[in-house]
From TrEMBL:
Name of the protein described by the UniProt record: GTPase Der
Segments forming a coiled coil: none
Gene from which this protein is expressed: der
Keyword Nucleotide-binding appears in the UniProt entry: yes
Record organism: Methyloradius palustris
Subunit relationships: Associates with the 50S ribosomal subunit.
Binding site for GTP 2: 184-191, 231-235, 296-299
Chain sites annotated for binding GTP 1: 9-16, 56-60, 119-122
Molecular functions (GO terms): GTP binding; ribosome binding
InterPro entries: AAA+_ATPase, G_ENGA, GTP-bd, GTPase_Der, KH_dom-like, KH_dom-like_a/b, P-loop_NTPase, Small_GTP-bd
Domain EngA-type G: 3-167, 178-351
Entry keywords, A to Z: GTP-binding, Nucleotide-binding, Repeat, Ribosome biogenesis
SUPFAM superfamilies: P-loop containing nucleoside triphosphate hydrolases
């Protein structure tokens, strides 16, 4: 599992600024895709060689008693529970506030490692600014500036210090059993879907979750093929009954996506596409996992409602246009049979072997038909391409002046490779390398 860093603090201390900085290099991969939400709360980052997950808990109001704030407080507490490290952000310009003390108390009780970061300290006398925060009893305050990046690298290094470098497992074997994560925000019907899928199939094995952030793994056989479902909704076997026990957890969702080869993103057609749906979707794209989208609760919708949700999808989930969409009813068991062929297709695409001669031929044809635009007086020259990884497939293109390749041209090449190699259902990464 990847280490999880959770950002906690009252509103306006700079959590989302820090979040954006931590996830920026990854974000560049998915920058300016139409429909992609900018306001994200979970992402991946890399500190040195160590990948990590990061959760921005939003504006934590520990005293909120009802409504959306209460739900946020609940989610924050859950995230704290699941954190490997907490970064507690306070505002060095504003100084210590009563709200900070309340949050600090909670964090001290959490038994989790906490790093106290005093933000917005650019241009200030750091020792003086941070002195008053000792009172929180959370160790030495670290001065940072999220906006300017000062102290951020040291902070991340310190946060990740206890964690080793991950063993890099080369996921290239397409004979392996596909791992499928069933994910989505609360109440979209994930457990209903898992139960419906299991109701029909032969369940081979089942494990018990250790902690709340563990998902349940279920091995099953369908049409003579083996799959492992990673169930984030939480089902447990009681005799022949499968019963939902756990509810939504952001960290669990991210870990499950990381572990999977293919994610099935479940969305509620009766509710429309919410911000949280888009967050999960953006995370899947960021992780590079293959994807099948299940628009659930399709039963009982009138025609105009169906039109409405389809427009919603076009508008808000446009950046998932590489994936297959299914309109299903987990409750009425409709449309489920078609999910697995799409999972198979997405898995195959994610694991595709792309030979250097084939890739290079497609590259040369594409650049001949449509040359890379001139940038700063020079036309980038793209020479050959080879595969740099699987799940997602990575195509590495070598050439000269590759820094000048425009994003739109990169997308054109991505689209070309996708079409020629029939890579439906998987993100595809195109990277450039200067020289040979
Ligand atoms: P959040 O509510 O905790 O997520 O806070 P935001 O990241 O939205 O930041 C709140 C405000 O503080 C914004 O106006 C930011 O531009 C500003 N801010 C964030 N980090 C810094 C910093 O390092 N220095 C200064 N001067 N302002 C910052
Ligand atoms: P989860 O939180 O994503 O695991 O969602 P659940 O599986 O617990 O479902 C939430 C609610 O939606 C329950 O009341 C389900 O009965 C209902 N539900 C799930 N799938 C469908 C569906 O296909 N159609 C309709 N109408 N309701 C559904």
């Amino acid at each position: 599992m990847l280490p999880t860093i959770v950002l906690v603090g009252r509103p306006n201390v700079g959590k989302s600024t820090l979040f954006n900085r931590l996830t920026k290099s990854r974000d560049a991969l998915v920058a300016d895709l139409p429909g992609l939400t900018r306001d994200r709360h979970y992402g991946r980052g890399i500190g040195g060689d160590k990948p990590f997950l990061v959760v921005d808990t939003g504006g934590f109001e520990p005293t909120a008693e009802s409504g959306i704030l209460k739900e946020m407080a609940r989610q924050t507490l859950l995230a704290i529970d699941e954190a490997d490290v907490i970064i507690f952000l306070v505002d060095g310009r504003q100084g210590l506030t009563p709200q900070d003390k309340v949050i600090g108390d909670r964090l001290r009780k959490s038994q989790r490692p906490v790093l106290l970061a005093v933000n917005k300290t650019e241009g200030m006398q750091r020792a003086i600014v941070s002195a008053e925060f000792h009172e929180l009893g959370l160790g030495d305050p670290l001065s940072i500036s999220s906006a300017h990046g000062e102290g951020v690298r040291d902070l991340v290094e310190l946060a990740l210090e206890p964690f080793g470098e991950p063993e890099r497992e080369e996921i290239s074997n397409s004979d392996r059993v596909p791992m499928i994560a069933i994910v989505g925000r609360p109440n979209v019907g994930k457990s209903t879907l898992v139960n419906a899928l299991l109701g029909e199939e032969r369940v081979i094995a089942f494990d018990e979750p250790g902690t709340t952030r563990d998902s349940i793994h279920i091995d099953l056989e369908r049409g003579g093929k083996h799959y492992t479902l990673i169930d984030t909704a939480g089902v447990r076997k009681r005799g022949r009954v499968f019963e939902a026990i756990e509810k939504f957890s952001v960290v669990k969702t991210m870990q499950a996506i990381e572990e999977a080869n293919v994610a099935i993103l479940v969305v509620d057609a009766q509710e429309g596409i919410t911000e949280q749906d888009a967050h999960v979707a953006a995370y899947i794209l960021d992780s590079g996992r293959a994807l099948v989208v299940a628009i659930n609760k399709w039963d009982g919708l009138k025609d105009d409602e169906k039109d409405w949700i389809k427009r919603e999808i076009d508008r808000k989930l446009q950046f998932l246009d590489f994936a297959k969409f299914h309109y299903i009813s987990a409750l009425k068991n409709k449309g489920l049979a078609e999910l697995f062929p799409s999972v198979d297709g997405a898995f195959k695409a994610a694991m595709a072997k792309l030979s250097t001669p084939q890739l290079t031929r497609v590259l040369i044809e594409a650049t001949t038909q449509h040359q890379p635009p001139i940038s700063k007086g020079i036309r980038p020259k793209l020479r050959y391409a080879h595969q740099g990884g699987s799940n997602p497939p990575i195509v590495i293109i070598h050439g000269n002046h590759v820094d000048g390749v425009k994003d739109s041209y990169k997308r054109f090449l991505e689209g070309t490779f996708r079409k020629v190699f029939q890579l439906t259902g998987t993100p595809l990464r195109v990277q450039f390398k200067q020289g040979n």
